[in-house]
Amino acid sequence: MTEPPQAAEGPFDAEALERARVFFAHPVRFLMGAVQMTGLPPDDLPEVAFAGRSNVGKSSLINAVTGRTHLARASTAPGRTREINFFVCDEQLRLVDLPGYGFAKVSRGEKNKFQNLGRAYLRGRPNLKRAYLLIDSRHGLKDVDLEAMEAFDLAAVSYQIVLTKTDKLNARDVAQVTAETLRKIQKRPAAFPRVVATSSEKGTGIPELRAEILEACAI
Question: Which CATH number fits domain 14-216: 3.40.50.970, 3.40.50.1820, 3.40.50.300, 3.40.50.150?
């Protein structure tokens, strides 16, 4: 029998949460940015990737997970990330910031170029353990997000939904969007059956997301 989807916190006890906190307190560094598949680092470490619409808060979330302020640089210009950025955590795993999709202010040709780079990474990276699809909790799943989920499903890449900016909502609305998101992903073949509701500003859900990452990478 298929395990039913679970709500935000996940099955992590205090010890697992503390172990994850300590792990990400270890050195984390920016490794490189790649503009084509031939420029990727070796596939010798487990990787988790962060994807989402432009301006959904990927850089802020990566900074929150690692406990850094300026590791990943956020931009006020949507769609600025046009390469795949790699960050190394304690020389044991890599966090991967994929190009944003959605309302990027670039030409159609250039937009397709860096969006296709992200798709190529998902299809061709054997050490990718999980992708995290970031969804703005104020808006829920949009058509462009459903397209991304189709790409994950076709690539057979395990992905988990992370709701961002939950500090902009009250607790009841967070619970509602979480439940609605769980319902929509229930029959998705590659969707991981838990949703993590986060706020990079308040730190909500960040301990659970750290633990999810370590579990996905078997660290």
Answer: 3.40.50.300
**Residue spans per domain, the chain:** 14-216
Q: What is the pLDDT along the chain (219 residues), one digit of tens a residue?
A: 344 444 444 589 999 999 999 999 999 999 999 988 889 999 999 999 999 988 899 999 999 999 998 898 754 444 445 689 999 999 999 999 998 774 344 444 444 444 577 788 888 899 999 999 999 999 999 988 988 898 888 889 999 999 999 999 999 999 999 999 999 999 999 999 999 999 999 999 999 999 999 999 999
Q: How far apart are the first and last CA of the chain?
A: 27
Q: What is the dihedral of CA 153, 34, 94, 138, to 10 degrees?
A: -60
